[in-house]
Amino acid sequence: GKRAWKPGTMLSPVPAVSVSCGGFGGWKANLITVAWAGTVCSDPPMLSISLRPERHSFGIIKATGEFVVNLTSLAQARAVDWCGVVSGRDVDKFAGAGLTPEAALKVRCPIVRECPVNIECRVESSRKLGTHVLFLAEVVAVQASSALIDAKGRLCLEKAGLLAFAHGEYFALGRRLGRFGFSVQKRRRRR
What we know:
Elements: E1 14-15, E2 17-21, E3 30-34, E4 37-42, E5 45-51, H1 56-64, E6 66-71, H2 77-85, H3 93-97, E7 101-102, E8 111-112, E9 117-129, E10 132-144, E11 163-166, E12 169-172
Antiparallel strand pairs: 1-11, 2-3, 2-6, 4-5, 5-10, 6-9, 7-8, 9-10, 11-12
């Protein structure tokens, strides 16, 4: 049977990403751990992140209109957790987390070199939604680790060991079940 549960943010798991911002316009480069990020459109490619206005990175992104969503893997788990606990007002998060800021292709804020995928974004709009502000952004460039690109040019994210977040806990994504439509795909006949 089912039991009633209080209304809340139950969508789970969600990606645990490291959002980089700043590094220009008088702002120090900074990182913030975000679990509220998602795809919103494929053409043009767009995504969203939601931040509380009291977060240091909120002011940076609001002022500069740019950020990078860095997909994180098991290798960055400790850094992601640490960056979610300390404030960029007080420390250099790149140095403290042992991560390397590197030039992006299209935005002025840095990517995180160690992350397997970096999604460069420009803010299109923002909207206050209670405790958080949603930044709606266009994806202007993507960088991916060459180790994740196979001989046919396919991006093999299943090899990245991406992090996910569910109800206060981190998880590493597991085994691949199949491609979209695998459950209804016709089996090929053997000759």
